[in-house]
Amino acid sequence: MVASDDPVPWRLQLWLQSAFALAGQVTDLVASTLSAKRRSLDRQLGAILTTPSGCAVARELQAKIGRARDQLLVFLDHPGRVAVTNNGCERALRPAVVQRKVTNGYRARWSADGEAAVHTVVDTARLTGGTTFATILNTIRA
Q: Where is the Transposase IS66 central domain (predicted)?
């Protein structure tokens, strides 16, 4: 349990709110403004991560965020092209996870690899705007 008087969790929460608020504006701002806001967020995060905490949970959270720090603001480096969260990726994986649970997994590695390859080709076809069938044929021919 995090102590209510520990400033680290609250500062992290405010920082995340600022980052998500900026994510909503990312395509409307010019590159120099995004760069300045990114530097400001990065400085704020650095201060939060170096703030001493008396709570073990808060220290663990600081360590985890510190390890992922270089990945947190990537959406600002590629405005409109990189999602702020990985929710889309999680949703794309959900059908495969459900299928694996319903069938108790795969008995052979080649079966799992084959299904993963088919999903990759189909999802790539959807992303590129091509037809699924044509993309599968082109993949088999290659």
A: 43-112
